[in-house]
């Protein structure tokens, strides 16, 4: 299917490749890398059910490594919308990019984060909840943006919440500004603690604006799943 999409893209079409994120992209990383990304073909890869939404089907259908895998592929963008409005914005950005894109969907409907389709720029973070400078800032992606907003509203009313619909590329200067204005950054994602959004934020912060970062993600240990927090 990925090879067919590459051929269609070479013939002038704009293919969309859809599958569960445990299969697209995880089981076809090599084909995505060589057939699509290497030649920067305008193929949009849609991975549905990212994270644990298919938890009852076991490890083979869970996807907690897809961001880490796709981040490492040159010339492949990675989008992770939080709600239906961000999904519309990400789909528009992906189609207009005319380049390889992996669009990650969590599938579990956690409710809307935005009231309408946001004006999103490629690489930028979207403020889902305003906050005060000098306190906690939450940065989340996908299904956990709604969770971050619920936590902030209930327990940290002064904290800002930022959604990350575009994980790669990412506006490093915007992230640095958020870090500079915050006492603590809390990153939430339905993904492995290794190589995901928390890693991106930590990498940018360590280079441009060091700050204390708490990463809330998962770690697979002996075929069991644990939600872990890691402080940088």
UniProtKB/TrEMBL annotation:
Domain Transketolase-like pyrimidine-binding: 1-108
Domain Transketolase C-terminal: 136-218
InterPro entries reported in the protein's UniProt record: PDH/Transketolase, THDP-binding, Transketo_C/PFOR_II, Transketolase-like_Pyr-bd, Transketolase_C
Protein origin, superkingdom: Eukaryota
The protein's required cofactors: thiamine diphosphate
Gene3D superfamilies reported in the protein's UniProt record: 3.40.50.920, 3.40.50.970
Protein name in the entry: Transketolase C-termil section-like
Species assigned in the record: Daphnia sinensis
């Amino acid at each position: 299917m990925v090879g067919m999409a590459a051929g269609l893209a070479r013939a002038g079409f704009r293919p969309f490749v859809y599958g569960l994120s445990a299969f697209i992209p995880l089981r076809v990383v090599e084909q995505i890398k060589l057939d699509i990304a290497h030649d920067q073909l305008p193929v949009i890869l849609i991975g549905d059910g990212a994270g644990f939404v298919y938890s009852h089907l076991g490890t083979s259908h869970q996807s907690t490594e897809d961001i880490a895998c796709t981040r490492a592929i040159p010339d492949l963008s990675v989008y992770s919308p939080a709600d239906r409005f961000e999904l519309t914005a990400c789909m528009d950005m992906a189609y207009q990019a005319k380049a390889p894109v992996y669009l990650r969907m969590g599938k579990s409907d956690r409710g809307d984060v935005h009231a309408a389709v946001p004006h999103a720029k490629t690489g930028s973070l979207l403020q889902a909840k305003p906050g005060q400078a000098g306190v906690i800032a939450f940065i989340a992606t996908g299904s956990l943006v709604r969770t971050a907003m619920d936590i902030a509203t209930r327990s940290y009313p002064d904290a800002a919440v930022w959604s990350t619909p575009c994980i790669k590329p990412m506006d490093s200067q915007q992230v640095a500004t958020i870090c500079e204005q915050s006492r603590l950054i809390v990153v939430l994602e339905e993904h492995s603690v290794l190589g995901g959004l928390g890693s991106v934020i930590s990498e940018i912060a360590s280079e441009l604006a060091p700050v204390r970062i708490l990463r809330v993600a998962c770690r697979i240990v002996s075929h069991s799943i644990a939600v872990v927090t890691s402080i940088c």
